[in-house]
Amino acid sequence: MKTILLAAAFALVAAGAAMAAPNTLTPKEQAAGWRLLFDGKTTAGWRGFKAPAPDRGWHVAGGALSPDPKTSKDIITKDQFGSFELSFEWKISKLGNSGVMFHVIEQGTETYQSGPEYQILDNAHGERPPEQAAALFALYAPSVDATKPPGQWNQARLVVDHNHVQHWLNGKKVVEYDLGSADFKARVAASKFKQWPQFASSATGHIALQNHGDDVAFRSLKIRVLK
What we know:
It contains three helices and 13 strands; from the N terminus they run H-H-E-E-E-E-E-E-E-E-E-E-E-H-E-E. By secondary structure, the chain is α+β, with helices and mostly antiparallel strands. The N and C termini lie far apart (48 Å).
């Protein structure tokens, strides 16, 4: 029994060593082509929507990137991405709301007018299912509520493999859809997004972090380009 317990303990230590600390990459991730979008210290690699730099409200504290809820505008990556796997952690304040958009192009006045949104939310806010955490905002509802309570870190993955998209939350795949499919187009036509012809129109674009007027934090933003 003692031997078994020791072996289990060593296995736990090894597993912990293989996990990356926040805002870092493991050797395995580096070998697989992952790169950091946030270094845990600065806003390098990000700029404003239609602006050369993030506004001053965006700040880094405790290894997390956050906006000033009252003043900040959305920020976008300087680089653009087509097919990719994005991994990130987020935490939201009580009853808070935010989002991460992809394939954002600089048309219109807001990032969500072109970029489909991975919804970030405290589900106690009471939104209908297609607007709950990890949804494709207003279009596809998550299959389960996999969120952690406000103030705790959630692990998210967004996989965009050409037109096929998956949303993951805390290890569970909760949303899956195909950009440009008949079903996708029908849902867009029945939503507010029908007023913006640029919505989901580009096969590549920026990734955006949204300020929706609530306290939100992001960390361990890392991406791997898919072919």
